[in-house]
Amino acid sequence: MSKQELDSLADAAGRGPSQAARDLLRFIRKEKLREPGLVMEYGIPLINSKGALGEDTWVVHEQVCCAALDCADLAAAEACITALRRKFPGSTRVKLLVSMLSEARGDLEAAETTYAGILDANPANAVAAKRRVATLLAAGQTGKAVAALNDHLEQSPGDPEAWTQLAALHVALGSLDEAAFCYEELILIAPADPHHHCRLAEAYFTLGTPDAVLRARKHFAQALELRGRGGGGGRARALHGLCASCAA
């Protein structure tokens, strides 16, 4: 994707033809761009023009709803959700939008309840699982967020973002054994990533037992080897950790 292509489509849409605006919105969806301003600018007039969207009608409603939430235009988001609920009663995708609207309004309890209901029906819904974790963290319920991440990882054990977030939460809670387990899982997913080796080594070193310190040396050394001879803070961090663990 080039910025020139996006700018060209936006210029064409700005000249007025509805097809150009549809092409712009389709391009933003295809490239998974986060351009809420453009989506709102060209999506709302298309929605208000009866018949202008054709087969794109409902996907553009969803797209505009997400953009409206990004722009804190809750009235526009609610209008899109109302139309989508009327067309697709009981739709899981619409329920996700309803929960996101609840989040935007600050009603975290309602949002979490809806996400939990979606997951009861389909535990493998990754979007609902991650939104639920975010909602629980925003509500200050770290313990429940950890439990929700564990539930998600039972369904999607190869999700590196979830393992990374769970590791960070365990570190913040002082649960270093659990954090080390998370980093071990990340190394299984991406064994050549020096960052994971360094983080695992730090968890082991902080545990402080003789066996853990030996493991820390191994992973600090592995992080250095994977980083090669390049400079940067990451290499210095691993080198400092290796020196500290050898001196322990």
Explain how this protein is built:
Part of the endoplasmic reticulum membrane protein complex (EMC) that enables the energy-independent insertion into endoplasmic reticulum membranes of newly synthesized membrane proteins. InterPro entries: EMC2-like, TPR-like_helical_dom_sf, TPR_EMC2, TPR_rpt. It comes from Tribonema minus. This protein folds into 3 domains: 89 residues; 61 residues, Serine Threonine Protein Phosphatase 5, Tetratricopeptide repeat (Alpha Horseshoe), CATH 1.25.40; 91 residues, Serine Threonine Protein Phosphatase 5, Tetratricopeptide repeat, CATH 1.25.40. It has 14 helices and no strands. The mean pLDDT is 92. It starts with a helix and ends with a helix. The longest helix has 18 residues. By secondary structure, the chain is mainly α. Helix 1 runs antiparallel to helix 2 and helix 10 packs antiparallel against helix 11.
Q: What gross morphology would you assign?
A: elongated
Low-confidence stretches: none
What class do helices, strands and sheet pairing give?
Answer: mainly alpha
Total helical elements: 14
* Count of beta strands: 0
Beta fraction: under 5%
Give the domain tally. Answer: 3
CATH architecture of the largest domain: Alpha Horseshoe
What is the rounded Rg? 23 Å
Give the N-to-C terminal Cα separation: 50 Å
CATH topology of the largest domain: Serine Threonine Protein Phosphatase 5, Tetratricopeptide repeat
Top-tier CATH class of the largest domain: Mainly Alpha
SSE arrangement, N to C: HHHHHHHHHHHHHH
What's the average pLDDT? 92
Which bin fits the share of residues in helices?
over 70%
The largest sheet is: none
Please identify which CATH superfamily of the largest domain we are dealing with.
Answer: Tetratricopeptide repeat domain
